User: Fold this.
Amino acid sequence: MSPMATEPTQWQARLRESGHRLTPQRELVLAAVQTLGHATPDEVYAEVRTHSDAINLSTVYRTLELLDELGLIHHAHLSDRAPTYHSTSGHEHSHLVCRGCRKVISVERSDMEAALGPLAEREGFEPDYGHLAVFGTCRDCARDDA
Amino acid sequence: MSPMATEPTQWQARLRESGHRLTPQRELVLAAVQTLGHATPDEVYAEVRTHSDAINLSTVYRTLELLDELGLIHHAHLSDRAPTYHSTSGHEHSHLVCRGCRKVISVERSDMEAALGPLAEREGFEPDYGHLAVFGTCRDCARDDA
DNA sequence: GTATTTGCAAAGTTTTTGCACGTGG
DNA sequence: CCACGTGCAAAAACTTTGCAAATAC
Assistant:
């Protein structure tokens, strides 16, 4: 549950070894993603701005893209429009997103892999579980509809 | 395999019963989606324009949204950016999308439901199988990466 | 010192909206 | 006829890009 489950040096090392520089902006963006759990670029920008105004929206976009490439964060599409980023410091997980109430249920990668693995293997396909978002209707909203 | 698997009157009835009007534009958009299989709003627009110029891009957006609400078509997010529409006249199916080569593997709803159903039920969640797109890497691209 | 990164502003892309005109029922 | 639907053009939302100044190393 620690907000900084990733070792303080791990992300730094990851940047350095890939030939990138450590900048305050990169640290701020990564911290914001970890704090927010799930966030769009805009939300990350807003979060960083509450702490400091030493960042620009373009930089947020560029930084999220970079961190994603390096595997320090993941992105999924939890709403029909706008990518959502989340930290990879916790467990990798998939999402069940309710169209009715917007609730997001997180599912452990291992559980999702157990379910989807055999089918995927049959198709010769390796799913990106951390990116997977299954849209649908949760129990509560199904009841309301009826 | 018929491009008009939907009865000529079914979609018309669906429109009428929901209090909407039959217009040439709605017919053209629905036909284009059925012809294309999978298509973004832009592609639908382009397809319609090859037959006739009696349509406007705004109308394509509005019409796709309407047809989706009525259940005559479905949409999924097969690329990281841009909804993709497909007809519901054939089998409902899910998609496996390869990030490497953009290939799209269609999976029968029944197969996907068999895999995901138990997990979903455990979470009290009813997936929208027709909307489901699983991103990942296909066999061919996995080989190339290595 | 110098190659990378950032800020800023401008442009690009995709989607939505207001409103007058057109048209299906 | 008249409410619903369309075309058009403008605006909104979101993302990317070029370039000079700033900065990590």
Notes: The radius of gyration of chain A is 17 Å. Residues 19-21, 23, 25-26, 55-56, 58-59, 62, 81 of chain A lie near DNA strand C (CB under 10 Å from a C1'). The CA atoms of residues 116 and 127 of chain A lie 8 Å apart. The mean pLDDT of chain A is 89.
